[in-house]
Amino acid sequence: MPMTPFQQKVYEFIREIPRGKVTTYAAIARAIHCRSAQAIGQALKLNPFAPEVPCHRVIKADLTLGGYSGATTGVKVREKLALLKAEGVEFVDGRLKDSSRVWSGE
DNA sequence: CGAGCCCACAACC
DNA sequence: GGTTGTGGGCTCG
User: What is chain A's mean pLDDT, rounded?
Assistant: First the structure.
């Protein structure tokens, strides 16, 4: 399946997210010169690169988890939490514990 | 090329 | 917590 340049940009950017850090849809949108975070989510939910692209490091600007694997809630989201925690990113009640871990793409 | 629909958001109320 | 606004991508025509 062919993917659009936009998706490639999104995936590429996310792929560069350092371990132990997270980024927001808004930050990504800004990084790829886009102004719509929804477009990011639209691309991410498709996520053809499940383990390649650490989509679990992408959270909402509100510092909440957001969604994962096409679900805003459920086991998948809990799994996302566990992955982040394993990287040193602790969440409390589905929220980022340390806001300084937000990666703005440098 | 144009109109409509979709989205894991963001901001405001 | 619910509603509104925004904005781009995608699909269909």
Answer: 92
Q: Which nucleotide lies at the shortest CA–C1' distance from A34?
A: C8
Residue position matching structure tokens 């650490």? A54
State if pTM tops 0.90.
yes
What whole-number distance in Å separates Cα of residue A57 and Cα of residue A53?
9
A49, burial (CB in 10 Å: exposed 0-12, middle 13-18, buried 19+): middle
* Residue A34 is among the residues annotated as catalytic for this protein: no
Domains assigned to chain A: 5-95 (1.10.10.10)
Helix (H) or strand (E) holding A59: strand A58-59
